[in-house]
Amino acid sequence: MTSPFANRLGIEHPLIQAPMSGSTPPALVAAVSNAGGLGSLGAGYLEPQAILEQAAQIRALGARTFAISLFVLPDEFDADMVAVAKAREQLDALMASEGLDVRTSVPARWAPRFSDQFAALCEAQPAVASFAFGVISPAQLRELQLRDIYLIGTATTVAEARAWAEAGADAVCVQGAEAGGHRGTFLHQPEDAMIGLFALLPLAVRALSAGARDVPVIAAGSIMDGRGMLAAEILGAAASQLGTAFLTCPECSAAAAWKQDLLQTEEHQVTTIRSFSGRAARGLRNRFVEAMPEPAQGLPYPLLNALTAPLRRAAAAAGRGDLLSEWCGQAAGLVRPQPAAELVARLMHEYRLARRTLAS
Amino acid sequence: MTSPFANRLGIEHPLIQAPMSGSTPPALVAAVSNAGGLGSLGAGYLEPQAILEQAAQIRALGARTFAISLFVLPDEFDADMVAVAKAREQLDALMASEGLDVRTSVPARWAPRFSDQFAALCEAQPAVASFAFGVISPAQLRELQLRDIYLIGTATTVAEARAWAEAGADAVCVQGAEAGGHRGTFLHQPEDAMIGLFALLPLAVRALSAGARDVPVIAAGSIMDGRGMLAAEILGAAASQLGTAFLTCPECSAAAAWKQDLLQTEEHQVTTIRSFSGRAARGLRNRFVEAMPEPAQGLPYPLLNALTAPLRRAAAAAGRGDLLSEWCGQAAGLVRPQPAAELVARLMHEYRLARRTLAS
Predict the structure, then answer these.
(1) Contact call for B331 and A266, based on CB within 8 A
(2) How many CB pairs under 8 A join A and B?
């Protein structure tokens, strides 16, 4: 049961903890890596200094092989400040009517500058870098290669998987439509990129093994247990990436109310939401989503995301899961709260058991 | 490698050819059943007499164990004839502008009467009856049980799977969001029932094994090869149901243009379409869908379906795939045109090979 992917990275298991930006503190990343998987620091919303600090913390916790993950975005964003002002009124009014004492404010910057984040990633020099929302440039590819950083691109269609392979990715992670949070779509409208993993995975594997080089495909989207990992392997995956499964770990910084609500999730209540961030993301349909089904004033990502960030922090602090972005995949109902190291061991035990059962 | 599901039905393989109403002539059903799978006559649009005739033809071709499948619908439908007249104008104008010499007409009946279809099914007495769009009544369940007909219900969410188990189904077929054509959704809005098979299958298996009796779950939705069947089994499926995979068989009555277009399918062009039938169905985005993104005059199913039927027949006869309802699942790009018996043998060979590879 050796895994070429795991061997290449020098890790024990072909198992990646997904980079859920905002919910992957160093303790979670290190716990997964120390247990033989690949922990991922979701650094999409971190300033360069924080990336360096958290990478150092992960290493201080004993982890050697881990990933840092970024969103490929422009460095600067233009904002229609009239729309921003109107959106703030609308959001503030909603919070007030829900009894939450918090107001929006205009941030100093709408998002960290990607080029600065990228430079920090290079300086931190993790074993693996992964990216979503777009492909990196040839110059950036060279920077990673110079430092022997393994590159994983995120794709939600076969065309996107091909684009990453052509951009030089060492592996491509395909996210099925089932996947939680913001998915990596960049070549299509979000509604055209809702491909179930059962379809996307074999299609992408066929496409990426037909090219000049055979690019390994990592499967993501509602893989929650060892059976799911084995099923993904049978469909051609070199490794499995699990996000939601790690959300209920004590090391994960997701709000307590969010973790609690995941335990009661019914799959038909996990929906596509644009009104927290301006970009389609999968999560629980709650009070906020019902009160605000569309993005305030149609504000785009990451502007709306920056505006709602303090509201979501306040909702988390107040235990108001119903006002919080409760991202999760469609199989969230299968979460099993337990420490990350135990979860990794359990996943691999289930995987081996499922495999042995088949063989008998 | 014995399968409890196959053993119970006395068939060789846990493999069902999906009941794709309108595209499953007796020759296809019999070929699959004679090859050791379970062929299904999609009888949703057949009048009672045709159901009896086609069942007799299937038997005349040597098949013993097969399924007949119906849509659970009311017997009668009310129509707003003003809206119908306006919709006809709109549809006729589109066909004229596309150079297709065909007109809509008001059918004698909007759809066959379900209770009459059900009576014909009972008379035909197939080994298996399967249903979509709703659950059958306790009285209908008794009619099936009296005749020892095995009952399969179709579900697209866990709640629907539970509803079928409570209604007495012997097995429940869960259709992932990837599945082609009209899906069986009946308790939810279509957009809330787009659950990927990778999530839906293990969730449904858990729900249906927790009840008073352990109800087998059949997996459907973008299973295209033997690896897919094995992956579904690992996620808990008792059997796999494949539809799109059989569309390109010579025995399948799908139009030649439709079969041809499937060979070039890209998964992001497989979309949800309401404008052929009034009910959400998955198929290829083509000229008709682009010209008419919404159902004419908002006509509901099955009214719009009946109005467009002659148009689609004419489009098929004229080789105009671009004006035809080209239903297919998201993994349609993986079709392999070949006779149904060869395809069944190939699927089972791949399944055994994948299993053996894992064991080694």
Answers:
(1) no
(2) 148
| β-bridge partners, A182 | A281
Least CB–CB distance from B202: residue in A177, A227, A266: A227
Question: What integer best gives the mean pLDDT of chain A?
Answer: 97
What pLDDT, on a 0 to 100 scale, did the predictor assign at position A288?
Answer: 98
Whether omega for the bond prior to residue B302 falls within 30 degrees of 0, making it cis, is yes
Q: Is the pLDDT of residue A129 over 90?
A: yes
User: What residues of chain B, 17 to 76, have a C-beta less than 8 Å from chain A?
Assistant: none
- How many Å apart are CA A183 and CA A194, to the nearest integer? 10
Q: Of the candidates A261, A227, A267, which has an alpha carbon nearest to the alpha carbon of residue B160? A: A267
The answer to whether the CB of B42 falls within 8 A of the CB of B28 is no
Helical packing angle, A226-234 and B226-234, nearest 10°: 180
Distance of CA A191 to the CA centre of its chain: 19
Q: With helix as H, strand as E and coil as C, how does B49-104 read? A: HHHHHHHHHHHHCCCCCEEEEEECCCCCCCCCHHHHHHHHHHHHHHHHHCCCCCCC
Residue A238 φ then ψ, to 5°: -85, -20
Q: What percent of chain A has pLDDT over 90?
A: 97
Angle at B153 between CA B151 and CA B158, to 5 degrees: 140
Amino acid type, B168 = G
Identify which of B192, B227, B267 has the shortest CB distance to residue A203.
B267
Q: With an 8 Å Cβ cutoff, is B193 touching chain A?
A: yes
Reduced to 3 states (helix: H, G, I; strand: E, B; else coil), residue B218 is: strand
Give the pLDDT confidence score for residue A210 in this predicted structure.
86
Distance, in angstroms, between A177 CA and closest chain B CA?
A: 7
The residue in chain B having the minimum alpha-carbon distance to the alpha carbon of residue A201 is: B331
Return d(Cα A251, Cα A63) in angstroms, integer. 15
Q: Which domains does chain B have, with CATH numbers?
A: 4-73+111-252+334-359 (3.20.20.70), 78-109+266-327 (no CATH)
Write out the E strands in B161-263: 171-175, 181-182, 217-220, 239-242
How does strand A181-182 pair with strand A171-175?
A: unpaired
Residue A318 sits at the vertex; the CA angle it makes with A315 and A322, to the nearest 5 degrees, is 50
The H or E element containing residue A273 is: strand A270-273
- Shortest CA distance from B157: residue in chain A: A268
Using CA coordinates, name the residue in chain A closest to B190: A268
Give the per-residue pLDDT at A1: 64
The total of other beta-carbon atoms located within 10 Å of residue B253's CB is: 15
φ, ψ of residue B128 to 5 degrees: the values are -135, 140
Helix axes B340-359, A226-234, angle to 10 degrees: 120
Helix (H) or strand (E) holding B229: helix B226-234
ipTM comes to 0.97
Q: Whole-angstrom Cα distance, residue A273 to residue A292?
A: 10
**CB contact at 8 A, A142 and A167:** no
Best to test chain B binding among A3, A198, A269, A284 (most B CBs inside 10 Å): A198
Give the distance from CA A338 to its chain's centroid: 20
Q: pTM for the complete prediction?
A: 0.97
CB burial of B80-116 (b: ≥16 within 10 Å; e: otherwise) equals eeeebeebbeebbebbeebebebebeeeeebbbebee
Q: Which of residues 205-234 of A touch B (CB under 8 A)?
A: 206, 221-225, 227-228, 230-232, 234
In the predicted model, residues of chain B with pLDDT beneath 50 are none
